[in-house]
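Forwarding the complex inputs:
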Amino acid sequence: MPGTYNPADVLQALPEVFLASVALIVLVLSFAAPARRGWMETLSIGGVVGTGVLLVWAAVPLFQPGGSPVSVFSGSYLVDKFAIFFKVVFLIATLLVILMSIDYLPLVGVPVGEFYAILLFSTVGMMFIASGGNLLTLYIGLETMSISIYILCGFLKRDQKSNEAALKYLLMGAFSSGVILYGISLLYGLTGALGFEEIAATLATIDLSNPALLLAMVMLTAGFGFKIAIVPFHMYLPDVYEGAPTAVTAFLAVASEAAGVAALLRVFLGAMPHIQVDWTVLFWILAALTMTIGNVVAMAQRNIKRMLAYSSIAHIGYVLIGFVAGAKLGISAVLFYVLVYAFMTAGAFAMVILLQTETVKGDLIEDFAGLGQVKPIAAAAMVIFLLSLTGIPPTAGFVGKFYLFSAAISAGYVWLTLIAVINTAISLFYYMRVAMVMYMGEAPEGLALSSSRPLHAAVAFAVLGTLGIGIFPQWFLKIAQASVFGLLP
Amino acid sequence: MAADYAYVLFFLIIGALFVVFNIDILSRLIRPSKPNPTKLSTYECGEDPIGGPWLRIHVRYYLFALVFIIFAVETVFLFPWAIVYRSLGLFAFVEMMIFIVILLIGLAYAWATGALEWV
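Prediction (whole assembly, two chains):
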């Protein structure tokens, strides 16, 4: 019922309301009680966990048989399994990033003050993206997320690269937001609606050969392409990843990419299923380009953050395969891969932070030299993340790729799968080079790791996720498959 | 559907022509032209201008501008809210108070971190 609104609707958005309130309290604490800084980390973790509990509580009726999605605020906010799935991924990512940051921020001299508050605001934005029922809610969520991340990227105020990262990301982000808005306005002009369902319903009745519709589709593809760094819109990404504080890079690589994928799925599957033929062709090409360029350029990197940047570009390429394959199989593979990707990439970045001490910056691949002999447990954790990123059993990365590729094969995209398999072989080279440096390289004098307990917990959690999903994929896959239902008719 | 946009295009063209015709052509024909030094000087609230108008503006104004914009936008929200206040009742009141409290936290933050100090 458009035009009516019910105060009880707020209850459906309780997880976001809760997290935003916690973020505000953290912000107030940051200037009102700066002496009790330890509280902010605890409170942030409590906020994320509490939001997770609220989400699970909201999810219970949905995942029961007969549970149906709820749409509130005149259809602009959806509570379905798809939204809950992505929100859980965002919360896991945020939790890992907070754990990584606790001792990292004082080490690199980041003012702790607002960091956690902004991080939580960004997460709230992501949650709104996942729940967006119309283009504007989605767009506002996207902006809440992005603007917070622009600030986070520049948190190393005295560091030129950090400033460069923030400025580049701001400019590219603002530009891509403009492109998205242009696409939204075209779509609105064509259909007279902003809600995904209404747009899809109108598109079913009008002439689909309208060039403006194609233009809208291309605009949205380009805009979201910037946000999740699809080739050829990826140029800014390595610089941003390299310059941003590593904990923020992890947040960018995991949570922000996942949010971008959520937005892409919502818009293209929710609003434009009728022109799937058109955008499938487009994304076929983009997927092949993204994988290939991401992997090939990653081989040439010496800085591990840049290497992981290109690797994350390549992984977005893999995710797009599932998107191209479509149907329940493909999309559930996308969801599953996003979850897997969150654990393994966050883990790899946590390892970079682990290597950073007061004397060593730890972001070159050489800095990993000799880790295998000196710190065998840490090296083993890194090997697990690298194996998973490559896609070798028994890690989660293998299962994720397996589902993506088999979805593509069963949808008939044999060539795309072939390209992806070749790319996986290419990626083996640069991932295993890190492993080789770790075990064959000579350890420098006094190689030390960060002694941060929360960071160790983050690595352990990521290892647990990577191996757990790899060994027992069934349960997670079942959830991923169930979560697709909220989306497709 | 597309025909509706023809009006917009039509309106844009007429609007552009209207401006160009009035400012550039019509006013040039009918206005008297008697310049003197006072008229040609930069307007600075009636004072005699000191220095050129192409000054560099100090970056510290930026923080004030930001805070100003936030509260300007708050007003934009408050006006329509005040107009329909009676028909919306208590719920709207509570919602707006939450909104204002969030903005106040922002103001308190700006204050506490020294963004309002003229350093």
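Chain B touches chain A through nine residues (CB under 8 Å).
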